[in-house]
Structure formats: structure tokens, C-alpha cells
């Protein structure tokens, strides 16, 4: 991945607070849900309910798709990412702490939640992108470039 692509990806992630995460339900249908996220490089972190459908889906099938979009006022400003990746519900204490640290750095108001013991009800997801499509309508309507992560 060249530096221009990496810069574009990091800029889109820095300017978005949420993503839409699609997992595969047991019946084979996709389930898309909007969630807040944090990141460390290209690795994404999400907190979800420990027994949520998303967490259960990922435990059964770790392939996910997600989109991250920046706010825009007209189509010529659309910038976003469509990512195919591998997700895991992290269990290693170091990975859990990394997820918490990244999420609290991005959403400091969540520190109150983290201190109440509610974090025991949360599963932290670690998502590693495998393929990234970059949408940049400033280069023309529908302009996309796809790269391997």
C-alpha cells in the first residue's frame, strides 16, 4: 500500500465516529449494524454486548464487511471506505486492554462507563482489514480504488 492510499484511509477513519459492520447470521443473511469504533493503524476496535448477535455471528463466522463514511453535503464530496476483513472477539487481556485504551482515547466520555463495571458486559472486537475499497468522489462520480491491506 502506498503512502497516499494509507493517508486517505487514515483521514477517512479520523473523520468518522462510527462504521456499519456487517456480519453473517446463522440463517445466512447478513446483519448490518452501526457501531462506534477506534483504531490503531489499520486495526479497528469495536465494543459490543457480550451476548449480542454481532458477537455471536463473529464467533461462528469471522469474515466481516464494513463501511466508514465521512459526512458530506453533496455527492461530489463523498469519501469513504468499504472494507472486507477478519474479526475476532478478543480474549487475551492485552488485546482487551488495547481495545479499551483505543476506545477511551477516542471517546474519553466513556471512562465513566468503564469505571462502573459495565465493561464486563462488553465483548471487544478486533478487525483486521484484508481488502479496502476507497471511495473518493472528489476524483469523479463513483471513483473507487481497491487495495489489499
Automatic annotation (TrEMBL):
Native source organism of the sequence: Paucimonas lemoignei (Pseudomonas lemoignei)
Keyword line: Oxidoreductase
GO MF annotations in UniProt: coenzyme F420 binding; oxidoreductase activity, acting on the CH-CH group of donors
Domain annotation Pyridoxamine 5'-phosphate oxidase N-terminal: ranges: 15-133
Entry GO terms, CC: cytosol
InterPro entries: F420H2_bilvrd_red/Heme_oxyg, Pyridox_Oxase_N, Split_barrel_FMN-bd
Annotated signal peptide: none
Protein name: Nitroimidazol reductase NimA-like FMN-containing flavoprotein (Pyridoxamine 5'-phosphate oxidase superfamily)
